[in-house]
Design goal:
CATH architecture of the largest domain: 3-Layer(aba) Sandwich
Helix content: 25-40%
Strand content: 15-25%
Number of strands: 18
Strand order of the largest sheet: 3-6-2-1-9-13-14-12
Radius of gyration: 21 Å
Structural class: alpha/beta
CATH superfamily of the largest domain: Acetylglutamate kinase-like
Distance between the termini: 36 Å
CATH class of the largest domain: Alpha Beta
Order of helices and strands: EHEHHEEEHEEEHEEEEHHEEEEHEEH
């Protein structure tokens, strides 16, 4: 069988029919290069939030089992629409729910854990040269009930399916074209990172950066599946997350909950100059530190008061070097 590639598209990428056409073009371009394509889809736009809101209008504390049954419909709608579109373009495609794709979980609703993936159906469809479109964010438990994986769960679906299929790569498409040294909405002159180690990405995700779900990174690391983050809406190179560890350089500055700042990079525990630079800025602005933690790949500082974005910019300008990008 030719290489299997898994492509995941987030909610903003499939928000309406016009964007679905862009997604279809991405998929068919890769399919035409003799790849076997498996697609994982999120619900369109804000569909999940809308369904949850409608449930709350009916009952303040809806049963978690029924909420899972409800919100899973968003992904099913998106997958069916994309399959309809691809077939209309002359490409054989089939949509599968989580249970049809053999994704089995524990019995926890709203935050289920994948326990096993039976790839028999997926492989059968690929052998027939179908583009296989799977609903993200969901599986089925031992009671044959639908379960969901929580926020960002489609990322987890994508990397787990890629691992089960021993896929060549797993692409995570969204409305951003990779991972940056800091949040571009808060800090000027941020740089896009071409590569990160799994460990660095886990540290970035754990600090609240809304790029990748940390569970998907853990699965990628365990099964050595390269994760490539790219934009749906342009063809720029993205960021590759893999087990290749580059030189010890600082990769990212993250602000969490207004008063916590983290600096991530392999070997940062040995970077005395970086620690000194951060402490110099702390002293310059007379910031009150409540906690200062250092691990192998992260410095985290919790401050008493809010850290303004211009201070974050100064930390980046001191620590992020051009040659590390």
């Amino acid at each position: 069988m030719d290489d299997i590639i898994v492509l995941k598209f987030g909610g903003s990428s499939v928000a309406d029919n016009e964007k679905l056409k862009i997604v279809a073009d991405k998929i068919t371009n890769m399919y035409d290069k003799n790849n076997n394509i498996v697609v994982i889809l999120s619900a369109q736009g804000k569909m999940t939030d809308r369904l949850i809101g409608e449930a709350k209008e009916l009952a303040r504390n809806a049963e978690k089992r029924e909420l899972d049954a409800l919100v899973s419909c968003g992904e099913q709608m998106a997958a069916a629409k994309l399959s309809i579109l691809l077939n209309s373009l002359g490409y054989k495609a089939i949509s599968l729910t989580g249970w049809q794709a053999g994704i089995y979980t524990n019995n926890t609703n709203q935050n289920a854990i994948i326990q096993n993936i039976n790839t028999e159906r997926i492989l059968k469809e690929l052998e027939q040269k179908n583009i296989v479109i799977i609903t993200g964010f969901q599986g089925i438990n031992e009671n044959m009930d639908i379960t969901t994986f929580g926020r960002g769960g489609s990322d987890t679906s994508a990397v787990a399916v890629a691992a089960a299929l021993k896929a060549k790569n797993c692409y995570i498409f969204s409305d951003v074209d990779g991972i940056y040294t800091a949040d571009p909405n808060k800090v000027k002159d941020t740089k896009k990172l071409h590569a990160l180690s799994y460990e660095e990405m886990l540290e970035i995700s754990s600090e609240g950066a809304k790029v990748l779900h940390n569970r998907c990174v853990e699965i990628g690391e365990k099964f050595k599946i390269p994760i490539i983050t790219k934009s749906t809406f342009n063809n720029k190179p993205g960021t590759v997350i893999s087990d290749i560890i580059e030189e010890n350089t600082i990769k990212s500055i993250i602000k969490k909950d207004l008063s916590r700042v983290s600096i991530v990079g392999n070997g940062i525990i040995r970077n005395i100059d970086a620690m000194k630079s951060v402490l110099d800025i702390v002293q310059k602005y007379k910031l009150d530190m409540l906690e200062f933690d250092v691990t192998e790949s992260k410095i985290s500082i919790t401050f008493k008061n809010v850290v303004e974005d211009d201070i974050l910019e100064e930390i980046q300008s001191k620590l992020i070097k051009e040659e590390s990008i």
